[in-house]
Amino acid sequence: MTTEQNSDTINRRGFLACGGTAAVLAGLATAQAGAQDAAAPAAEKKLRVAVLSQWHPHAKGYAKSLSSMPEVDITAVWDEDPKRGEAWAKQLKAPFEADLAVLLKRGDVDAVCVNAPTSMHPEIMIAAAKVGKHIFTEKVMALTVAECDKISAAVSDAGVKFCISFPFRTRVETLYAKKAVEEGLLGKLTFIRVRVAHDGGCGGWLPEHFWDPATCGGGAMMDLGAHPMYLLRWLGGQPKRVVSAFSSLLGKPVEDNAVSVIEFENACLGVAETSFVSTRSPFSLELSGTEGSLLVGGPEEQSVRICSNKLDDKSWHTPADIPAAGPNPLRLWVEALVKNGPIPFGTEDGTQLTELMENAYIAAREKRQVEIPPRQAV
Fold first, then answer.
1. What is the assigned CATH class of domain 172-324+354-371?
2. Residue pLDDT, tens place only, 152-183
3. N or C: which end of the chain has fewer CB within 10 A?
4. Domain boundaries 12-167+329-345, corresponding CATH code
């Protein structure tokens, strides 16, 4: 089954339209089963969601997905740009509220979908958690680990459910990569490379505010590069040090072309590649270890090929035991709220991503290798 055939799964080109492993797979399977219940009669009380800002390009896709879910009602809209917010609210047929504090106190809002400027994430999510609103957020969680820790504490204290959008961790090929690593098919992991890139910069379709370092905190690596970064952290484990090379082909205030190299505690090396100036650059994932290698993507983005000394067929081949795709993170979040399903991408996952980003940007600015001490989860 391809990603396009699974409407609850997001592939790279579908982002703008939609917005160990055993535990992850079990969680995804549970949520998938819940998603299949959509044809059943909806519960009397729907999940009431407020959408917060149309700043991020994925916001429209998330709103469209929420609107399509029979168990969800979009009950309010807020935007830091009132003119944009009022127009969007009319499209969604939901009331616009210019004052975020007033919106968060509404009795008809159970949860919020956050697509605001990254620099505003802490104040928005902490305020939402304090009044008991569940949170779905576009990546990244925040610009610093210190801010993430404050969000995590607020979420934990309030007992609300939190989900960050990590769609590549629901794809069949990346789930198989994680499975292969944990089953030891590659031996001791020595190298991981992940590339996610598009032409949003050179193609001129990214919003102009995406080049603002104050609100974005960075350019291509901070936004699109989040996908390689969280995949590297998921597959490679605890990072030890990072070095970066960022450039700006278009001469913007933030980078549009970027690479970070990470050394993990287990001595594996990881490479995160991203770009806003690469046309038709396919997703690719490469893993190598002492017992084998795994290649994912290329022109056929969901292609999976493995060669391992641990398998009977030691030649390059497509494995037969590829896991099923999971629902996209937004669906997982809704299932968690409506049917008490699991959320594989919580505050700690979001903080681990920010940890890599924060240090990768220090490395780029200061043109040096940055040490990353072991993190104690909040």
1. alpha beta
2. 999 999 999 999 999 999 999 999 999 999 99
3. N
4. 3.40.50.720
